[in-house]
Amino acid sequence: SPLDLDTLVAGVQTDAQKLELYTASRLTIDPDTRAERGYLDLLAGRLGLPDALVDHVEATVSAAKVPVSEKP
Q1: Cβ 11 vs Cβ 20: under 8 Å
Q2: Which pLDDT value is given to residue 21?
Q3: How many C-beta atoms surround the C-beta of residue 54 within 10 A?
Q4: How does the average pLDDT of the chain come out, rounded?
Q5: What is the pTM of this model?
């Protein structure tokens, strides 16, 4: 079963861990539905991540992802 968000967030202590957790989630989830976008927004809020940092992660992940049709 999915891990409870409160349990997941309670396990991170440092700012670096919070950033790693959000980034790992964003790399795993391609937010193409409202539910997925909502989860990422909720996670960022629970972790207390500033909007500017979330935007930076989003831009970095989007730039790093290569569409399947363009892979060699």
Answers
A1: no
A2: 96
A3: 20
A4: 89
A5: 0.82
Size of the chain in residues: 72
| Alpha-carbon span 27 to 11, nearest angstrom | 19
Residue 71 lies in a domain: no
- Residue 48 inside a domain? The answer is yes
Distance between CA atoms of 11 and 13, rounded to whole angstroms? 7
Task: Provide the domain count of the chain.
Answer: 1
Which letter, b or e, does each residue of 8-39 get, where b requires 16 or more Cβ atoms within 10 Å of its Cβ? ebeebeeeeebbebbbebbeebeeeeeeeeee
Whole domain around residue 39: which residue ranges? 5-63
DSSP run (H or E) holding 33: none
Hey, what are 70's tokens?
């363009």
